[in-house]
Amino acid sequence: MADLSLVMADVCATVGIPADQKTLVASEDLAAGTVVRIIQSGTNAGKWTKADATSYENANAYGIVLKTVVAGQPVTAVRKGYIDGFDLSGVNYWTGVYLSNTPGALADTAGTIQKAVAAVVPSNSQRLGTAPDKILLVDFPLRQEAVVDTDFDSGTTDKKVAALITALKKLGLIEGMA
Q: How many folded domains does the chain comprise?
């Protein structure tokens, strides 16, 4: 898995008007381009912290922050929209981008919790006749959906339950032995 990096440190921006964004206070220092989630409970509840794909709670990502801030400052995260600034030179168009196991990072392959959050799309910000730039179309899901790989029209109840458990484990919604 390769984490994506910014072309220039601490520089990323929206292309056009974001479809969905939220401003909250950062619970820790955050760099532009960091993937964040909302802390659900405790001392820092309701603030941003880095998201990652190592557990279901940490993978509950909201979006990408657009500027670098220190803990205690407000910062805006984009949940849906177009974001420029990532080095996507080695990634093909329409390739999925995932939440990384590295806190706050995106990757070109899925982490432990498989959460697709963006796709690489073309953008024509250059003069006509030149190759299009690559930007991210981000669309962070607000909830996870389990996809069952087994045909539910046939098979025993035990097989159906086992397939459902496998699908829920892939999303990190449940843990333990099957």
A: 2
Distances (CA, A) of 54 to 17, 149, 164, 167, 175: 31, 23, 21, 17, 12
- The C-alpha atoms of residue 27 and residue 99 are separated, in whole angstroms, by 20
Burial class (CB within 10 angstroms; exposed 0-12, middle 13-18, buried 19+) of 100 = buried
> pTM for this structure?
0.76
pLDDT tens track, the chain, 178 positions: 588 888 888 888 888 887 789 999 999 999 999 999 999 899 999 999 999 999 888 999 999 999 999 999 999 999 999 999 999 988 899 999 999 999 999 999 999 888 899 999 998 765 555 667 889 999 998 755 555 555 566 667 777 777 777 777 766 666 665 4
Task: Examine the domain organization and report whether 56 and 108 are in the same domain.
Answer: yes
